[in-house]
Specification:
The protein has 149 residues and is mainly beta. It has a domain of 87 residues: Sandwich (Jelly Rolls). It has two helices and nine strands; from the N terminus they run αβββββββββα. A hairpin with a 5-residue loop joins strand 4 and strand 5. The relative contact order is 0.25.
Length: 149
């Protein structure tokens, strides 16, 4: 019987791989319980890059939840109703989307770029990102967490 004969037992795929690193390769960075995704929604993953000291995107909202991960630098992150906080390289963030205003995704550092990944769940027929008008910002000012200087 030759080695190529179909009756010759073959090692399983696990043995052919030769490494068990996959068993400890995953580290959970962040977990969240987002709202249900609407039928017809789509998901978009984008890399965002801001130069040192950049103020980031003006106040905006997303039609669905956003999950992110900072690759490089530090982001000044602020959602409506929550105090601003700094998210550093290697840390994750999320926002619920919908009616919540995302006030800041600024580069917190003046000496290094900010790079992050954002995976956005987009509702059908709605833009991935919608800027908030000044009038609405003024009307919703009481919902914003107090700012520290």
């Amino acid at each position: 019987m030759s080695r190529n004969d179909e009756s010759t037992p073959r090692p399983s795929a696990r043995h052919e791989h030769g490494s068990d690193a996959w068993k400890s390769a995953v580290t959970v960075i962040h977990e969240a319980a987002p709202p249900a995704f609407p039928e017809g929604a789509h998901v978009c993953t984008a890399r965002v890059e801001f130069p040192p000291g950049d103020p980031g995107t003006p106040p905006h909202r997303h039609s669905g939840p956003v999950f992110g991960y900072v690759l490089e630098g530090e982001m000044l992150f602020e959602l409506e109703g929550e105090p601003a906080r700094v998210i550093r390289a290697g840390e994750a963030f999320w926002e619920p989307g919908g009616d919540v205003i995302h006030y800041s995704d600024a580069n917190h550092r003046t000496d290094t770029p900010l790079r992050f990944l954002a995976t956005m769940v987009c509702q059908p027929g709605k833009p991935m990102l919608e800027l908030v008008e000044e009038q609405e910002l003024e009307e919703r000012k009481p919902r914003r967490a107090p700012r520290t200087t």
